[in-house]
């Protein structure tokens, strides 16, 4: 397809859903209070945010970020490699490493660029990368750039991952073998089978085990130390990658490891580190303040799980299909893309903000509404959301009981 044909194809898709008034994307939020937002003059309950601990609106985080602007200015003035490297970045690296249980860490400007930059220099064309099929786009993009052999395994199927590892080692003895998974899957809310994957690393210590814990950090493990901590397998993971755009109320990312030589290699070689500007001070200080709060108030994480467990049970009671969610991300499986767009619009009309995920973000025919909860959601907000969901589930026929096949 030519550029014009590709452009026309995408425009036709979005014009069609816009004409029906159901385009959910790029809707401008006019105001936000964290758990509530104003869009097109309506006040809505937000159940689509990754700010799981609600720290983005914590006055301590906001004050510290505002002060950082007055102390450091708004922009970093350069990449960390050259003129944008601040003591704040090094303080944050030490704190993060200690938090996730590794010796060191390297901070990047986004989570996406952390995966792109790290995988870009860790992996070469001689290597094989074995990935859970549902890994995030930034992992697949990062690997694509390396021209390594990419092999996927069925989602959370550790036995298949083991077979793939053994086959790769036998067929390409000169290359490295990487095993990559997320800690918590961003669309399904499922936890990875990290204990089983760690057993592969134990059986094959020469492989490189890389964990993207974007959605596990601040959510799982002791006081939010992440999914590896939750499973007690931190020492089996070679690289733990995380982002600041979810529980850490900021933007940015990091990669942590025990091997300090490897971290120095990443710091000096990752192209997204060298050729991209540093994380601004306000964002860096926001994360430092979140870590202070998390260390002092681990009960925030407990409250998040309380909210999550309540909502998961209530979804099941309504009869919604939520797959194997085990985290604050609870998908509502709808089916067709169009129905998901309509469901999202109906939520909007009823006062709830949650967006659909459609192919290719999820498998075809399994479009879903991605809902996500925060420790700061109040019970009255949750009650309201459940009343709306109960009504819409019936109206749209998306309950488990509506799915029973017609006899004959
Ligand atoms: N990894 C995962 C699993 C993600 O879900 C995301 C973003 N949603 C990223 C990486 C990229 O992180 P960021 O948005 O902080 O760039």
UniProtKB/TrEMBL annotation:
This is 8-amino-7-oxononanoate synthase. InterPro entries: Aminotrans_II_pyridoxalP_BS, Aminotransferase_I/II_large, AON_synthase_class-II, PyrdxlP-dep_Trfase, PyrdxlP-dep_Trfase_major, PyrdxlP-dep_Trfase_small. Residues 45-386 form the Aminotransferase class I/classII large domain. It comes from Solidesulfovibrio carbinoliphilus subsp. oakridgensis. Belongs to the class-II pyridoxal-phosphate-dependent aminotransferase family. Keywords: Acyltransferase, Pyridoxal phosphate, Transferase. It comes from the Bacteria. The keyword Iron does not apply. Coiled coil: none annotated. Its EC number is 2.3.1.47. One of its GO terms (molecular function) is pyridoxal phosphate binding. SUPFAM superfamilies: PLP-dependent transferases. PANTHER family: CLASS II AMINOTRANSFERASE/8-AMINO-7-OXONONANOATE SYNTHASE, LD36009P. Its cofactor is pyridoxal 5'-phosphate. The keyword 4Fe-4S does not apply. It is an enzyme of class 2 (transferase).
């Amino acid at each position: 397809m030519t550029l014009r044909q590709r452009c026309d194809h995408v425009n036709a898709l979005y014009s069609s859903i816009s004409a029906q008034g159901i385009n959910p994307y790029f809707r401008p939020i006019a105001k936000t209070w964290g758990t509530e937002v104003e869009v097109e003059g309506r006040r809505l309950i937000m159940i689509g945010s990754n700010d799981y601990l609600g720290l983005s609106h914590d006055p301590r985080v906001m004050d510290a970020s505002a002060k950082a602007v007055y102390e450091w200015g708004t922009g970093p003035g350069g990449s960390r490699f050259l003129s944008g490297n601040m003591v704040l970045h090094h303080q944050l690296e030490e704190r993060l490493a200690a938090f996730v249980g590794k010796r060191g860490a390297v901070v990047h400007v986004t989570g996406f660029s952390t995966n792109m930059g790290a995988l870009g220099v860790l992996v070469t064309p001689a290597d094989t990368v074995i990935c859970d099929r549902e890994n995030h786009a930034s992992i697949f993009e990062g690997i694509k750039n390396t021209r390594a052999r990419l092999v996927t395994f069925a989602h959370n199927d550790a036995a298949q991952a083991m077979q793939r590892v053994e086959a790769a080692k036998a067929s390409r003895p000169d290359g490295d073998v990487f095993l990559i998974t997320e800690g918590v899957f961003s669309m399904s809310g499922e936890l990875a089978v990290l204990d089983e994957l760690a057993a592969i690393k134990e059986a094959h210590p020469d492989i490189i085990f890389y964990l993207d814990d974007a959605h596990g950090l601040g959510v799982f493990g002791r006081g939010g130390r992440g999914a590896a901590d939750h499973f007690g397998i931190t020492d089996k993971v070679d690289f733990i990658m995380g982002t600041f755009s979810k529980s850490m109320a900021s933007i940015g990312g990091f990669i942590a490891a025990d091997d300090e030589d490897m971290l120095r290699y990443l710091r000096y070689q990752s192209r997204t580190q060298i050729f991209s500007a540093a994380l601004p001070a306000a964002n860096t200080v926001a994360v430092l303040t979140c870590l202070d709060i998390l260390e002092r108030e681990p009960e925030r994480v407990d409250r998040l799980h309380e909210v999550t467990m309540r909502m998961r049970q209530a979804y099941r009671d309504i009869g919604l299909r939520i797959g194997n969610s085990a985290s604050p991300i609870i998908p509502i499986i709808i089916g067709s893309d169009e129905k998901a767009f309509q469901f999202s619009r109906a939520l909007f009309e009823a006062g709830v903000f949650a967006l659909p995920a459609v192919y290719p973000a999820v498998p075809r025919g399994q479009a879903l509404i991605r809902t996500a909860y925060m420790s700061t959601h109040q019970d009255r907000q949750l009650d309201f959301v459940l009343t709306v969901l109960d009504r819409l589930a019936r109206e749209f026929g998306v309950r488990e009981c509506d799915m029973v096949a017609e006899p004959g």
